[in-house]
Design brief:
The complex is a heterodimer of chains A (369) and B (201). Chain A has 369 residues and is an alpha+beta fold. Chain A has helices at 52-71, 119-134, 160-182, 195-198, 201-217, 224-232, 243-252, 262-279, 310-314, 321-324, 359-368, and strands at 2-9, 12-20, 31-40, 47-50, 87-91, 96-104, 110-118, 290-297, 302-307, 339-346, 352-357. Chain B starts with 29 loop residues before the first helix and ends in a 6-residue tail after the last helix. The chains are: A alpha+beta (369), B mainly alpha (201).
């Protein structure tokens, strides 16, 4: 028996024609087979009609679209109609909705229809569908199946392009910093040698000058300072050309008794002048006179020397003094040997003069210094 | 048989018409709390006695155990993170269900008015006219704007997005549309399901 069901709402009429199973006389027999379904929007010329396939697509699309409208989260709905999906809905401007459907005529030609629905019309369509779904006398197999979208569909708070910006900025900054840091050369690593080995002789002389100036500024330390310095300098490494060792040698002689015999002094004076004048390089010339205090042993060996002016310190390598000085093996040991002290002057023209210094005077001068 | 204590109150049976969503946490997500409060705000803008009606309806539907009174209703609504007096309490599933059912019930009463307003909005926007030309619609929008501004914390990022009249009008119209979809035969089910879109696991 052919049965007709109609769901009438102010802006949408849904009409179903089909066959009911069961007893013909039973008015409660459910409609189970749909022959034709028709969707009419009063006030518009559009009539959408089709079979069961159209009805199923309409129910599914309208129901999902209503949910996406309620939640604001887009459902995975087809953008356009296709052979598989004859009904599609998509949002338009100003709370309007575009309903698209492929309608097959009685003679079999498929035409595509597009309707613009406002919210109220769409609601009436949804309500008609809901009433059909809730109706147990029509298509009992068709019921409302709602399930919330899971988290994968949650709309991100910001579009992908905006979320990518911080990442891109961070990466480009890192790349720029890496490129900039690549440009300066890699610093070469030089294993640091010990100061006493690496430092040149002149540096050592300057250092010694500083040390001596320090020692001179504090007379109390004058006795202890030389022994301190001797610990810093390894005696094994001291050579005849080492002015520091020579300086120490002079310090070592502070307690040595002085030679007071005038004959011996004059002899030593002449010997010293001769030996220095012989050893002095003829080609070397100085601008200023170089003045040294030199200690000489009774046998005529130079035991130590000390510069008396700045020129003497800077030009020490040009004088024969470092070569001629006798450096004892043990510089810390004080000597009891009698010494004579001379003030030796290297003049600019290569002449060498030596003057004996009174022993008492020199120790006084030392103490005053 | 003698009982030492009264029987444990069972949840109102009307709440069982809505399924329990499969959530990662026990309480309702942030969007649910915001949406429910905003829908009630739209009802209040449509009907001056909206919040009174809400209490009365919840009593009629036997939901007193979930919403016992005005204070509880205020506390539930204040779980909306946009509010000035935001309660950092969770919103239970039962409370959210009760609000959903009451909202749909009230929306059904107001459906005629909502249809008028939405049709009026469509006519005005078709003709590119200002929304003030529809007296009833302008009244609704104006009341919604003032209620929103008086209750929501303007420092919140979610509220800053609605700083202008146009944006608030847009929100009011979309809430009106949502309320209309709540009035249908399957309204509560549709609203309930939509609240958890993008939240279930």
């Amino acid at each position: 028996m052919t049965v007709q069901r109609q769901y009438t709402l102010p802006n949408c009429n849904l009409k179903l024609e089909g066959l009911s199973t069961g007893d013909d006389a039973d008015p409660m027999a459910p409609l189970t087979v749909v022959l034709n379904s028709e969707c009419i929007f009063p006030g518009t010329p559009h009539v959408l009609s089709g079979g069961r396939e159209f009805l199923d697509a309409l129910v599914k699309t309208v129901s999902d679209y209503a949910q996406s409208l309620l939640s604001g989260i887009p459902y995975p709905l087809p953008e356009d109609v296709s052979a598989k999906q004859p009904v599609a809905l998509k949002p338009g401007e100003h709370h309007r909705h575009h309903l698209m459907a492929t309608v097959t005529d009685a003679d079999g030609t498929a035409t595509r229809q597009t309707l613009e629905l406002n919210s109220v019309q769409l609601f009436d369509l949804v309500e008609a569908v809901d009433q059909l779904l809730a109706d147990t006398l029509t298509l009992p197999d068709l019921t409302l199946k709602l399930s919330s979208l899971d988290r994968r569909h949650a709309r991100p708070a910001e579009p992908m392009a905006q979320r990518a910006v911080p990442v891109a900025v961070g990466l480009s900054t890192l790349a720029a910093a890496a490129a900039l840091l690549f440009m300066p050369p890699v610093p070469e690593f030089e294993p640091q040698r010990r100061e006493s080995e690496g430092a040149s002789l002149s540096e050592l002389v300057e250092q010694e000058a500083a040390n001596l100036a320090e020692a001179e500024s504090s007379p109390d330390d004058s006795e202890t300072a030389p022994s301190d310095r001797s610990e810093e300098t390894s005696p094994d490494e001291a050579t005849a050309a080492d002015p520091i060792a020579a300086g120490i040698a002079l310090g070592r002689l502070a307690t040595a008794p002085a030679i007071s015999d005038a004959d011996i002094l004059s002899e030593l004076e002449a010997e010293l002048e001769d030996s220095l004048a012989d050893a002095l390089d003829a080609e070397v010339s100085f601008e200023d006179d170089l003045i040294y205090r030199v200690a000489v042993s009774e046998s005529g060996d130079i035991l130590g020397y000390k510069y008396e002016n700045d020129a003497a310190l800077t030009n020490i390598d040009d004088t024969p003094l470092p070569e001629l000085t006798f450096i004892p093996v043990d510089t810390t040991e004080t000597t009891d040997e009698a010494v004579a002290q001379f003030l030796v002057t290297f003049e600019g023209d290569g002449e060498v003069t030596a003057e004996p210094i009174d022993a008492a005077e020199s120790t006084d001068a030392d103490n005053e210094e | 048989m003698q009982l030492d204590s009264p029987p444990a109150p069972s949840a109102p049976s009307i709440l069982e018409t809505l399924p329990v969503p499969n959530l990662p946490a026990q309480d309702c997500p942030r969007r649910v709390r915001m949406d429910l409060d905003l829908l009630i705000l739209a009802i209040e803008s449509l009907d001056v006695a909206g919040s009174e009606a809400l209490l009365k309806v919840s009593e009629q539907l036997g939901l007193q155990s979930v919403i016992p009174g005005r204070v509880k209703l205020w506390r539930i609504r204040s779980t909306n993170p946009m509010r000035r007096q935001n309660q950092r309490e969770p919103l239970s599933i039962a409370e959210a269900k009760a609000l959903t059912i009451v909202i749909c019930f009230l929306a059904k009463r107001l459906s005629v008015l909502m249809r008028q307003l939405l049709l009026g909005y469509q006519q005005l926007s078709d003709k590119h006219l200002a929304l003030d030309h529809h007296f009833r619609l302008a009244d609704y929008l104006q009341r919604f704007r003032s209620l929103f501004r008086s209750r929501m914390n303007p420092q919140r990022a979610g509220v800053i997005a609605y700083s202008t009249d146009e944006k608030l009008n847009e929100l009011a119209i979309s809430l009106l549309t949502r309320l209309l979809f709540c009035t249908g035969t399957q309204g509560p089910q549709r609203l309930w399901s939509s609240l958890f879109d993008g939240e279930v696991v």
